[in-house]
Amino acid sequence: MVRRGIHPAHAALIGGALGVAVLSGCTPSPPAPPPPGAVFDYQLGAPYEPDVSVDVVVRDRTASPGEDMYSICYVNAFQTQPGELGDWPDELLLRDAARDVVFDPDWPDEAFVDTSDAEAVVAVVGPWIRGCAEDGFDAVEFDNLDTYSRARGLLERADAVVLARRLVDVAHAAGLAAAQKNAAEDTAVLHASAHFDFAIAEECGAYRECDAYTDVYGDDVLAIEYTDNLTGVSFDEVCADPEHPRSIILRDRALGAPDDEGYTFRRCS
């Protein structure tokens, strides 16, 4: 499969081509999303050699892209990654009335980022996005778009949408496609206002919300279900659901490697 990302060796040529396009009044083509119906693997834990059937891989921004396949770079843009609290300026950490840093109740080792100042957040995240492009990734996903829904009224949905648009702008300028991550209830506004190119949805089958993504993005949706949250429905039943995205996999919650206990990777037949 031909890589569609920007390789560092080609950066100067691409930059020159973009300059010519601007001077000639032409608009560069938008970055391409993953191929519809592609088999993908979600490797946010330790990266490993994907199954031979895999066409697309998602890895953390600190990892290398997959070799000879479409690669998506994971960036936690709306809250801090575990162990990376110090990577953020103190003034961008959300604080409550007592001036204590507010942590995600679902992920207590991740602090919320104050999304009210989009440009300040972009100043931190922008270099990570450009680093994904320089490393050879084809696209980027921005996690925790919906932190406002868990922040006890301290964050605003409108600010999240504005920040999302700015992050997508940076990704597109770097030659990367951009994925909406989760936030099913905001799909229509995020697609229309932030101009995401495709979506990555966790557990949309378990929560019966896959159509929120497919109604907007069509086949440009990658879906992950987890082994510990298919209550009352089997993975085969999820695969058979006509409302479910074409690209769907089953993974273990820890997103472990093949040698790890509990490792699971299945795709619909």
TrEMBL record:
UniProt organism field: uncultured Microbacterium sp
Residues spanning the membrane: none
Ranges for domain Glycoside-hydrolase family GH114 TIM-barrel: 40-255
Annotated Pfam families: Glyco_hydro_114 (PF03537)
Name of the protein described by the UniProt record: Secreted protein
PANTHER family on file: ALPHA-1,4 POLYGALACTOSAMINIDASE, PUTATIVE (AFU_ORTHOLOGUE AFUA_3G07890)-RELATED, ALPHA-GALACTOSIDASE
